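Take a specimen:
=====
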Amino acid sequence: MPTELQTDHQFEFNYPFKEVFLHPEADATINAIHFKVDQPKGVILYFHGNAGDLSRWGKITEYFVEKNYDVLVMDYRTYGKSKGKLSENAFYDDAQYCYNYLLQHYPEEAVILYGRSLGTGIASFVAHKNKPRTLILETPYYSIEDVAKQRFPMFPVSKLLRYKFPTYEFIQSVNCPIYIFHGTDDKVVPYASGLKLKETASSDKITFISLIGGGHNNLMHFDAYNAQIDKILN
């Protein structure tokens, strides 16, 4: 569910930022916002959900800039000002390209990966390919197929899906600490899918935070979410 932005769109945020254009392929352009603060505690590479563009997601990620972290948030191909043919491999390749971009400016031990909804599968892919400090997943899924089967049990979804995003495969080989936040009343990505994902990772490296009554888009309003995020980032 992408929304597009004109190439001359001027972003407005509350913190200093640099607009970045990356070129993972000759026919692809990735637009990103790179927030920078004085003496950052680290940098967060943020992979957003399936709707909207950077004009929205940049404002959401300012939450982490307030906590004295640099943040890089990208728009996927066909979202915002980003261009190129979209595919599952393109999601992965562009995410790794952004990770490599950060490694030109930060030590790898300073990089935190954050995925929200659709972005959780992408963040998990990057985490299993690299050695970030931490992986944080907000409303993650076991796989897109698992979500589709729960929502549309009457359809042969495994044959219809163009995107798989098998997060459960990636998370098994992630070696950094993993934090999962999931609301019990999530109507988009079922809470059960997040719990199922938890069971695929080693118990000694994963922390699962249940937010009672939490939905899909309101976890930042819960005290338990904010307290745990402060603990992770501090």
Q: What stands out?
A: The beta strands are 17-25, 28-35, 43-47, 70-74, 111-116, 134-138, 178-183, 206-211. The mean pLDDT is 93. The two ends are 34 Å apart (CA to CA).
